[in-house]
Design goal:
14% helix; 11 strands; Alpha-Beta Plaits; alpha+beta; 2 domains; two-stranded antiparallel ribbon
Length: 181
């Protein structure tokens, strides 16, 4: 079984949170014996894949398989070509250089749901959207990469993992999908 889930902002990518009683996957997905293949930070939104197949989970989550992940990042400011080129070549972070990424400025995604709570708004500082495609998955990598090139991420949405996309799933919605053969 393969589940596509649009993880809302402020939801943990796990089924329990005994310590703090925060929102988890269990608040949205009533299925037993499915587990996330990878994770999204609590302050990130978008596509999370869950499966009951351990081998599939490893294949999706393991960076050795280099499954592309597409992110939409709303950033502070308007990135120039030099910043995009740095993202494309790879950025040096504290834990080493990143692999090259695909990076482009994009329009705000059409039909995008509002975030609750909304991002901070500052009239004097414009925001823009970048689409980044990565083939690795370090902790908070997109946020660290955009900050390293001078454009901090304000909102982060994962749109796709390999051949799977959010499609028309709204935050908190899920559906079953065909696992790869």
């Amino acid at each position: 079984m393969l589940i596509l889930f649009n993880k809302p902002y402020d939801v943990l990518s796990q089924f329990t949170d005994r310590a703090h009683d925060r929102a988890t996957l269990a608040d949205y997905i009533p299925l037993k014996n499915v587990y996330p293949a990878g994770r999204l930070d609590r302050d990130s939104e978008g596509l999370l894949l869950l499966t009951d197949d351990g081998r599939l989970q490893a294949r999706i989550a393991d960076p050795r398989h280099k499954l592309p992940k597409v992110y939409w990042a709303q950033v502070e400011g308007v990135p120039d070509q030099a910043a995009l080129e740095r993202l494309r070549r790879g950025v040096l972070l504290k834990d080493g250089p990143t692999r090259p990424a695909k990076a482009r400025v994009m329009e705000e995604p059409p039909g995008l749901w509002p975030r609750d709570p909304p991002i901070r708004y500052r009239a004097a500082i414009p925001t823009s959207w970048i689409e980044l495609t990565l083939r690795e998955g370090r902790n908070r990598q997109v946020r660290r990469m955009t900050a390293a090139v001078g454009f901090p991420t304000l909102r982060l949405i994962r749109w796709a993992i390999g051949p799977w996309t959010l499609g028309d799933l709204k935050p908190g919605e899920w559906r079953e999908a065909e696992p790869p053969r």
